[in-house]
Design brief:
Helices cover about 40% and strands about 0% of the residues. By secondary structure, it is mainly alpha-helical. It has a single domain, classed as Lysozyme (Orthogonal Bundle), CATH 1.10.530. The longest helix is centred in the middle third of the chain and has 18 residues. The radius of gyration is 18 Å and the shape is globular. The relative contact order is 0.13.
């Protein structure tokens, strides 16, 4: 698959993935600039722009601008800017670990925003099927604002007030009052997905800790077949909705996206890719009240 993709690229795109982007880092006026240290220092954990260029981004998410999609909302510049606010994202471990984290993040978020198989990630910005409810759970800490709806938005389709509230607090944006910002400001949108990715919650590790090899399963995790690997990340995100009841096409698709991105980035997938036989971590709702 990777060989086919590279064969159709123009000469300017034939540079290996991980080649420095044309622009990275930030100037005093907020604009991206070339040759910033994080870009040059990829061997010691440089940022997102040291892993993929704008051209690479277009290859990875090559159909997001299709006429059926709203994916042009998701830009390379917004992704880089948002990632700068999470210093450990794709800066932890060796170069293969960093690439694997990027592939895992794109794999999960692509499935959340897809309109098809494997090349169709980042097609949608907002949840495509809603039942008209506000996606509000009673919480004294993160109370819903009357008239606001907290359905899925952004790369990871963040949903419910108990996620919008702490995400907004973490990135210093009032998302409980204005959840639509996740669907109208691409930097905020990426930041909410990265907040979810980087944040531990209740008895769950962060997705970042799992994919970078920092998470060590407890006895209860081993008993529930939750072992380090991409499958645990699916479990963190979807829980019992997709995990723990045998083969599930949605889980299979998440793996398919991940494999595509790993192939393109030239990195192995690792072990324990599915969550078919994993027990879920349980719910966060009661903890957030």
């Amino acid at each position: 698959m990777a060989a086919f993709i590279f064969a159709i690229l123009t000469f300017s795109s034939l540079l290996p993935f991980g080649t420095l982007a044309e622009q990275c880092g930030r100037q005093a006026d907020g604009k991206l600039r070339p040759n910033e240290q994080l870009c040059r220092d990829s061997g010691r954990g440089g940022g997102l722009a040291s892993l993929i260029s704008r051209e690479d981004f277009e290859i990875l998410l090559k159909r997001r601008t299709d006429h059926r999609c709203a994916g042009s909302f998701y830009t390379y510049e917004a992704f880089v800017e948002a990632a700068d606010s999470f210093p450990a994202f794709v800066r932890t471990g060796d170069n293969d670990t960093r690439k694997r984290e990027l592939a895992a993040f794109l794999g999960q978020t692509s499935q959340a925003t897809t309109d098809g198989k494997y090349a169709w990630g980042y097609c949608f910005v907002e949840q495509q099927v809603t039942d008209g409810t506000a996606y509000c759970t009673y919480s004294t800490k993160w109370p819903c604002v009357p008239g606001k709806k907290y359905f899925g938005r952004g790369p990871i389709q963040i949903s419910y007030n108990y996620n919008y509230g702490p995400a907004g607090e973490a990135i210093d944006v009032g998302l409980l009052n204005d959840p639509d910002l996740v669907a109208t400001d691409p930097v905020i949108s990426f930041k909410t997905a990265l907040w979810f990715w980087m944040t531990e919650r209740y008895n769950k590790p962060s997705c970042h800790e799992v994919i970078t090899g920092q998470w060590k399963p407890m006895a209860a995790d081993v008993a529930a077949n939750r072992l380090p690997g991409y499958g645990v990340i699916t479990n963190i995100i979807t829980g019992g909705a997709e995990c723990g009841h045998g083969p599930d096409e949605r889980v299979k698709d998440r793996i398919g996206y991940y494999q595509r991105y790993c192939d393109i980035l030239g990195v192995g997938l690792g072990d324990n890719l599915d969550c078919y036989n994993q027990g879920s971590f349980g719910t966060l709702v009661d903890v957030m009240k």
